């Protein structure tokens, strides 16, 4: 009987040990599988694309570097560089785009870099250097869409530099009859007319100073009518007090009030000049923002990412 019970106990213990070993082995395999999956190239790539989709561009940049570090060559160099440019721009790291050297890259990447570098300079309002870069000759040739994106920015920069006739001539001579990078001819014509209207409303700072000889008129010229009226009334009141102070032999008051009147009068002239410059800065910023939106530069960059970056991998 005792021998029989020992045999049963031995069988139960053996059975329990095997169950524990099987469960432990299964759990270990699951853990190893999870770790492998988390550090696999496809997982990191998918996670990077997910971060981009929710506008986490800095984190996506970190993950992209991790992918390239763990799996060199997993992503083609052209796709990798294009995605890096996309992430830098959307992360507002414009200076890094401008300073990055792509001379050893393929012609296609050079052309794409020209697009992002131009857009970065436009955001920094460095239109002159942007125009020099866009005309530097980095035309892809093999990809018509990239060439059209470059061409579109050439016209945009002429508009931003108030070279309306040059923009119109290029548009009329080379692109009549078919859409440019998703835009109709009418949309381009509207952009040209909008630019003409904007620059027609730009103020001349020195004209504001000249108008400022009449108290407050510099502000009125710079579209600050209320400020101009206040300046006119204040300076007029102080000037009147100064006149009557000296007329009534109240010299100390006259000197004090006269000094104040002179101060505000000079400030009104300088204020008109500065206000007109500020008006122009705001107008140019509005023009830039409006034209980049009208010409859909953001959509261009998105298309470049989806077609030439990692956006097209795994589709």
Could you tell me the CATH topology label of the domain at 76-183 and 297-312: Serine Threonine Protein Phosphatase 5, Tetratricopeptide repeat
Mean pLDDT: 81
| Helix vs. strand class | mainly alpha
For the secondary structure, the number of strands is 0
Assign an overall shape: elongated
Biggest sheet overview: none
Can you give the helix content as a percent range?
A: over 70%
Low-confidence stretches: 22-36
Total number of helical segments?
A: 15
Approximate strand percentage: under 5%
Q: What is the ordering of alpha helices and beta strands? A: HHHHHHHHHHHHHHH
Rg calc: 34 Å
CATH architecture of the domain at 76-183 and 297-312: Alpha Horseshoe
CATH class of the domain at 76-183 and 297-312: Mainly Alpha
Report a brief summary of the structure:
With 315 residues, this protein is mostly helical. It contains 15 helices and no strands.
């Amino acid at each position: 009987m005792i021998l029989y019970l020992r045999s049963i106990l031995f069988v139960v213990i053996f059975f329990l040990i095997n169950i524990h070993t099987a469960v432990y082995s299964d759990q270990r395999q699951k853990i190893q599988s999870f770790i492998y999956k988390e550090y696999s190239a496809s997982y990191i790539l998918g996670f990077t694309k997910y971060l981009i989709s929710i506008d986490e561009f800095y984190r996506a940049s970190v993950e992209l570097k991790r992918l390239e570090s763990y799996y060199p060559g997993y992503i083609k160099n052209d796709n990798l560089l294009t995605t890096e440019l996309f992430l830098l721009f959307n992360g507002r790291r414009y200076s890094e785009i401008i300073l990055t050297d792509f001379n050893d890259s393929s012609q296609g990447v050079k052309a794409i870099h020209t697009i992002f570098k131009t857009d970065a300079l436009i955001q920094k309002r460095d239109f002159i250097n942007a125009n020099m870069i866009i005309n530097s000759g980095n035309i892809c040739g093999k990809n018509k869409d990239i060439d059209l994106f470059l061409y579109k920015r050439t016209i945009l920069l002429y508009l931003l530099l108030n070279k309306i006739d040059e923009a119109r001539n290029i548009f009329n001579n080379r692109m009549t009859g078919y859409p440019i990078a998703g835009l109709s001819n009418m949309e381009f014509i509207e952009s040209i007319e909008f630019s003409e209207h904007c620059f027609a409303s730009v103020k001349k700072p020195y004209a504001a100073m000249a108008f400022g000889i009449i108290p407050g008129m510099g502000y009125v010229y710079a579209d600050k009518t209320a400020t101009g009226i206040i300046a006119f009334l204040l300076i007029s009141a102080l000037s009147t007090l100064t006149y009557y102070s000296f007329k009534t032999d109240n010299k100390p008051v006259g000197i004090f009030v006269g000094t104040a009147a002179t101060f505000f009068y000079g400030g009104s002239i300088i204020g008109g000049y500065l206000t007109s410059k500020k008006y122009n800065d705001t107008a140019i910023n509005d023009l830039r923002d409006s034209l980049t939106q009208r010409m859909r530069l953001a959509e261009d960059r998105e298309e470049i990412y989806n077609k030439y970056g990692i956006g097209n991998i795994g589709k």
